[in-house]
Amino acid sequence: RGKLVDGRNDLMTPLPILLIHSAAAWAPDAPRYWPKYGGSRQVRLLDGAWRYGFIDGWDSGFDSMNASFRPSDGATPNMTSVPSCMDVVAGGAGGYLGPRGVGLFRTSFRSPAAGSAVRLQFQSCSFYCRVWVNGREVGDHLAGGYVAFALDVPADALSPDGGGENELFVLADNRFNATTAPMHTGGDFWHYGGITRSVELHAVPEAGPLLWRAHVVPSSSAVEAEQPDGAPAAVDISLVLSGVEGGREELKGQGELGGKAESGGAVGGSPRCGGGAACPAPVYYFSLAFDGGEAVARNGTASGGTVRLEGVPVPDAKPWSPDAPHLHTLTVSMGGQSVTERFGLRRFGVDKATARLTLNGEVAKLVGWNHHTQWPVTAASPTDEQLDADIALLRKGGANLVRGAHYPHDPRWLDRLDEAGILFWSETLGPAVSVANTKDWAFFMVHQKRQLSEMIDNAINHAAVFAWGWFNEGPSDHPEACPAYGACSALARARDPTRFTTWADDHKTSGACYEHASLVAFNDYPGWYSSKSPRVWDGFAAAVAEGTTASGRHTVGKPMMISETGAGGVYEWGDNATASKWTLQYQSAVIGEDVDVALANDRISGISLWHFYDFKVDNCGSTWPCHGRPGQENGTHCTYDHPPPTTFEELRRLGPPNCTAIAPTFRPGGTNHKGVLDFWRRPKPAFAMVAAKYRAARGRPTASASRAIIVQ
User: What's the pTM value of the predicted model, to 2 decimals?
Assistant: First the structure.
């Protein structure tokens, strides 16, 4: 939104990329995150300058699902950059109302070859997304604006000439709506809209299946089963194969992919088998190479579009852990295509004697923070440098844990967590889920399960991910909601039994659904939202261990952690004569007690403080734009000594703004001030204090207080 300079939006100008997190070499137009592709497996980013238009207004009357809408009806007179957020204002600072409406995006791409189909992968398109190629609609997405999804484009929708131009048109609607955006149920944070992460173009082979991904998980590592000692040295591999039919993703299963035998292809029966006999399953030939080593020929049959291999030894296997985050690679080659995935060898479990969480057979204490995806200037579309800076701050803070609040996160972020040895709790979008939502099996739960499955698809290979979660502060105190919790848990366990299943529960001992969790997690804010002492955590931990919650014995033997706790502190309010609420002294006192209790109690497996930094809120959620009551974003921002910078040049020249006056309401200035850093990443006293406690608990030297990191 910002002024146009030579037809471009100066707030959306692409920023220089400098990867410092990995030694991996990336092709100029290839995704700068794992996996990597080779051979005929052509993949390139469609990021960059796109034509853009915006239909402003919550009540504009525009129907994003109108079946008669055509790309020719949508005006795109401006330019913007993809990825970016179409509703970032004031550099992402809290208290400024961003626009709600419909973004229209247009670009072009060349067909990889005549007669070949393509697959489009959106790492995110928020909230609701519809996609057309050459005027033909190829699909939409309702399962949440923070999760990656793919749409297939058949060959007959593309330019008939090899290398011909094709128009890609995308509609992104960031208005809260139970029909177009059922997963966006609200929550105490600003939901950003637009094409906020990268867009990938995947070429599809003319014959045979597409080798889509290779999912790699450690063998014999189910968290709820008997486990061998130590870290695993073998992996289970699932080769995901798919094709394109009618513009929809069709997984090619047993008996559906026949054809002549060739290297890397399939040998098997035709789907049209004579006499009504069952078709034999096709056999696929491929090779596996670990860590760039020798390729070993293998073969296997597909079931449900997946070839599964179990117990494949990893040569020179090295375990992954927070102290030594070693990562391996696996290159799968088939039919001229290759996909290289990265993974780590580690095993999560539960100590029988103490019900504590274990990592590679050793009892672990997890310490860290919750982390939204909000950054100065770029909002939910950070640069690589901004990601690197936050990882550096987390490491300085002594963290070995990040909870991904409250939605699936950017693959670049997960790559960096893998490399830094910081465990990650990955959860679906869905704060403020209602009982009615959980009982809506015909619509809401269909998209919730799709979102969960898509999240697992895209994050399963990340060594850092230790838990799959959903329904933050949901209706778990209502027994009628428990089947929805159970359905999510069953899906996650079936897809990946090597991680914990969980949710952050603010009903605590009143939670009735813990039979469906393998990790019990509580949200509570003693000393902030109540006058209770942080010693209340001891009682919560005892209730879980002794089976005295509303879920009864279903918590016994399960690890328990603190998923949220903390206190607010306004960055500029550090010199008050008394440690009253909202001062930095008060914040440090409350947080310090929370951390001390968590570290001292052997029944508590971990703590993720709320929050790492201050962030922009929108408590109106699905009732936006707060009809009949003042919105927390609308004109409630601080009085600043200078306006919040909206470009990196302004941020370098002016520095972060300082708040000179603020009303201490529920969310002062439209901001959640519970961060140990402010929004601009300047540390509060609580940061150094918590870092010292975390590092001592992990047996590491205490770090000096961090100075602010301003991305240049």
Answer: 0.91
